[in-house]
Amino acid sequence: MLAERRQTEELMDDPALDAGTYLAVLGDLAKVNGFTFAYRPTLAFLERALGNRTHFRLLDVGFGDGDMLRRIATWAARRGLSADLVGVDLNTRSKAAAERAPHPPGAPISYLAGDYAEQAGGGFDCVISSLVAHHMSEPQLRAFVRFMEAESAAGWFINDLHRHTLSYLGWPVLARTMGWHPIVRADGHTSIARSYRPAEWRVLLDSEGLGAAQVQRWFPFRLCVERLR
């Protein structure tokens, strides 16, 4: 049943979704990220990519409610790193949701609404995304990978889901047990079915001339793509 990527649209992508519901969905997605240790792969990438840098500029594409950027801000502050963190999201409601969330004191984060392509030439050390790749069609994802390759001085990182039978079968049970929003329950199931498998990522990357990029599995059922300079 998961031999090929599902193309079904997700409920949270519906532009008609009211702002209150969208805010609730983003809040529960942040809880999902925390519960499933979703921040670890991205922070581990930054540890490797930044090396001896004492300052870095980062772009997060599709930031949702900004939970990844807030976690990075805390991570950087604990290491004495100066950071300039920029998030961009097509959904204007994400900006409002992210700005409303509690932030670490002095968090160096800017939230922007718009297309990531508008950030070209922004002088970024790193470009990242989390739970965004599976929302894209293959042509869109190829364009995104090319953007990341062109716009990151230290490297780029895609943090996404693994289309795996166990996660697909187990997700409804976990989501119902945790009492997450019905849209999160439904979309999580769809997201798993829309995500990629390691061999599919490898074909895409190699065809784009990115043989140096690595495809990594992270517990539980995360599939990440890393490109270091």
What order do the helices and strands come in, and which of them pair?
Layout: H1 19-35, H2 39-50, E1 55-61, H3 67-78, E2 82-89, H4 92-100, E3 109-113, E4 124-130, H5 138-151, E5 152-161, H6 165-178, H7 182-194, H8 198-207, E6 214-218, E7 222-228
Parallel strand pairs: 1-2, 1-4, 2-3, 4-5
Antiparallel strand pairs: 5-7, 6-7
Helix pairs in contact: 6-7
Could you characterize what this model shows?
By secondary structure, this protein is an alpha/beta fold. The protein is 44% helix and 21% strand. It has eight helices and seven strands. A seven-stranded mixed beta sheet has the order 3-2-1-4-5-7-6, sandwiched between helices. Strand 2, helix 4 and strand 3 form a beta-alpha-beta unit. Helix 6 runs antiparallel to helix 7. The mean pLDDT is 95.
What's the story with the biggest beta sheet?
7 strands, mixed
- Which whole number gives the mean pLDDT? 95
User: How much helix, percentage-wise, in residues?
Assistant: 40-55%
- Provide the structure class: alpha/beta
Strand order of the largest sheet: 3-2-1-4-5-7-6
List the total number of helices. 8
**What's the gyration radius in Å?**
17 Å
Strand content: 15-25%
Order of helices and strands: HHEHEHEEHEHHHEE
The geometry reads as globular
Secondary structure tally: strands: 7
Low-confidence stretches: none
Give the distance, in angstroms, between the N- and C-terminal Cα atoms.
38 Å
